[in-house]
Backbone:
């Protein structure tokens, strides 16, 4: 009797995940964990394990909040059995307490194992998102693997990708979740069916690990016409945070707000390790030497808030007002809108994690630039001069930390502007929406469901 294809796929997936887990544990987690306990000298700790230690201490009742300096220091001191001279602020949202609970349980057995499971799960989600979205693009547009596949190779082999894997950073999970969401919207649009809420809502909940990730996920739903699902996702996140506040008290929320405010300060308070505020290719880092950090941070915050509000209003207008939809479809395709929102985040967020430029892979897939043209006509060659220039720029953005080019951040910021501008133009040549014609679902359906 023939084995059903679905069972074969699941079996292959489980075997692949098991193999990935073994490789990550052997060549990443064990090596990283060994560095955490040197016989002498400075203790080194990865981002994920640092956060996991604090969340684990919270669930064990050793600390009452994950955001206060004293609580963070107490958790780290207890874990290492020595006094920590510096700690890091915690930028994750309160939902991290629930999202990381399975890894907290694993950490009770072995912290390295918990790190392995987190990194492996993040890489697996990224692989699924890339395969699903890539398969759709290849089936729909034969030339889609021109610049796109070269860009993905550059991203996957970059210094930032290696760093994200070794540190267990959330950007891997965020990229995978957003790509899988986009693939689901494309497939649903082509098939003329609603998106599967059982898939999308958990992905948005995963993205709630950090506010910029959650904002990007909800905005993708809005931009591509899934207004009902976007509102439902936002309500789910608010309900999740409210539930945690009811259980643990309002201090959890106020402490989180206070911790987030630290990222807008020119320098962190004494006792916090000074993060690499001025080593990222953001407007704040690029222009703080010229404008002063306070002004650069203020401009960045204003642009992000204003741009986010405008982006949300345009998305609602497109899918709720027939005349606005007609005008916007002529001047700003849905794919262009999505690329522009990612540009807003990647260029102007006051603080960008060291590996979060990896999120560039999401607008690359959304725009799916084809060498020489978009959906029709033009040079169908595998590559061209413009595409080669963009890929060189992408390589520079993802690897400049190797050469410590921090004195040229103003130039690197413009390089990133150039890459995102190229993607914006490429998105205008691609089809408008996730289906064949531009929009997550017909306008009438949107209006009836909201």
Residues:
């Amino acid at each position: 009797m023939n084995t059903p294809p679905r069972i074969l796929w699941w079996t292959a997936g489980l075997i692949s995940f098991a193999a990935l887990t073994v490789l990550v544990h052997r060549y990443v987690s064990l090596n990283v964990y060994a560095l955490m306990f040197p016989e002498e000298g400075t203790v080194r700790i990865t981002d994920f394990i640092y956060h996991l230690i604090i969340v684990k201490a919270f669930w064990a009742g050793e600390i009452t909040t994950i955001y206060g300096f004293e609580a963070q220091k107490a958790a780290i001191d207890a874990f290492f059995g020595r006094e920590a001279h510096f700690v890091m602020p915690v930028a994750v949202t309160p939902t991290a307490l629930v999202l990381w609970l399975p890894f907290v349980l694993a950490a009770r057995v072995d912290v390295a194992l918990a790190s392995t499971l987190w990194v492996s799960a993040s890489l697996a989600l990224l692989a699924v998102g890339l395969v699903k979205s890539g398969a759709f693009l290849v089936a729909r547009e034969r030339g889609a693997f021109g610049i796109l596949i070269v860009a993905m190779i550059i991203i996957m082999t970059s210094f930032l990708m290696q760093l994200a894997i070794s540190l267990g950073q959330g950007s891997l999970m965020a990229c995978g979740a957003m790509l899988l969401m986009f693939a689901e919207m494309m497939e649903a649009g082509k098939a003329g069916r609603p998106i599967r809420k059982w898939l999308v809502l958990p992905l948005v909940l995963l993205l709630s690990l950090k506010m910029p990730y959650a904002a990007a996920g909800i905005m993708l739903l809005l931009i591509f016409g899934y207004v009902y699902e976007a509102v439902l996702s936002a309500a789910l996140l608010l309900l999740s945070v409210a539930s945690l506040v009811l259980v643990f008290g309002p201090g959890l929320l106020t402490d989180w707000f206070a911790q987030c405010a630290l990222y807008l300060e020119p320098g962190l308070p004494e006792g916090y390790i000074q993060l690499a505020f001025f080593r990222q290719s953001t407007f704040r880092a690029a222009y703080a030497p010229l404008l002063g950090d306070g002004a650069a941070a203020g401009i960045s915050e204003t642009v992000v808030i204003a741009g986010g509000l405008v982006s949300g209003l345009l998305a609602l207008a497109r899918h709720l007002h027939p005349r606005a939809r007609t005008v916007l479809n002529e001047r700003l395709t849905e794919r262009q809108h999505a690329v522009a929102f990612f540009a807003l985040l990647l260029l102007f967020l006051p603080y960008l994690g060291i590996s979060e430029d990896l999120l560039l892979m999401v607008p690359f897939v959304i725009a799916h630039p084809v060498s020489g043209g978009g959906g029709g006509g033009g040079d169908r060659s595998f590559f061209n001069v413009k595409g080669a220039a963009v890929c060189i720029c992408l390589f520079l953005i993802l690897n400049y930390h190797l050469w410590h080019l921090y004195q040229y951040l103003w130039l690197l910021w413009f390089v990133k502007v150039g890459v995102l501008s190229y993607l914006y133009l490429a998105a205008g040549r691609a089809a408008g929406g996730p289906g064949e014609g531009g929009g997550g679902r017909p306008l009438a359906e949107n209006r009836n469901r909201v």
User: Anything to note?
Assistant: The longest helix spans residues 5-35.
